[in-house]
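[09:14] KT: can someone run the structure on this one? pasting the chain below
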Amino acid sequence: MIFLAVDDEHLQLSKLVAAIKEAAPDNEIHNFRNPLEALEFAQTQIIDVAFLDIEMGGLSGIELAKKLKEINPLINIIFVTGYTEYALDAVTMHASGYLTKPVTSEKIKMELEDLRFQIPHHAPDKLIRVQCFGDFEVYYNEEPVKFARSKTKEMFAYLIDRQGAMVTMSELSKLLFNEDKSSYVRNLVADLTKTMKDLHIEKVITKRFNGIGVNTEYIDCDYYDYLNNEAYAVKKYRGEFLNQYEWAKSLKNKHFRKRS
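[09:31] RB: done, structure tokens below
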């Protein structure tokens, strides 16, 4: 799971993060003292659960929750406060939970066991997580994968879009360079292979004579989940697909015109 923790008081935020770590170890936690920075971060990631202090300067927890729900209607909001008079606001916001300070790991465990929105659980054999909605990003152990060349990353984005279909060097040349640069594309393929090998996830790539593809069995991808009618992915798609690549614009119209 990916957690968001927001409290403008340093000590309270530290205590909250520590309690979350104790209640749900081995999960990803992003913490912010500035609610506007938290909101900006939430525009780039799928947040499963957001722990929000209610009384904050600049943007209250209630206001932040509304904006987070605009980005992701299926986000679980758990309000954290030292006061009880905000309980009605939490109900109105359809929050998943409401915690009073001091926050403990036991309280957090109880809330996580009764979340309003189910968090998608992916099969353990998924080796990487790929984000296609918005900017294209690839994550291994929830850390961004670093590609030596930007064209290698772009090539991988196209392979993801092809959903396991084999792609020739000639097709990749036309896509990436609008001319025949098959020899250079082979260098990109070698670069991609090395990147995956260094992470010990070579199985993500499938290669045959003069062709390359991806093994979708090992890839956790929002676009693939969308095609499978996963509720969270359908809700997450907001008209943005592989934003940084010009060639993806026509593909977006083809892929999403029936549902968007």
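[09:33] KT: thanks! The first helix runs from residue 10 to 23.
[09:34] RB: yep, looked fine to me
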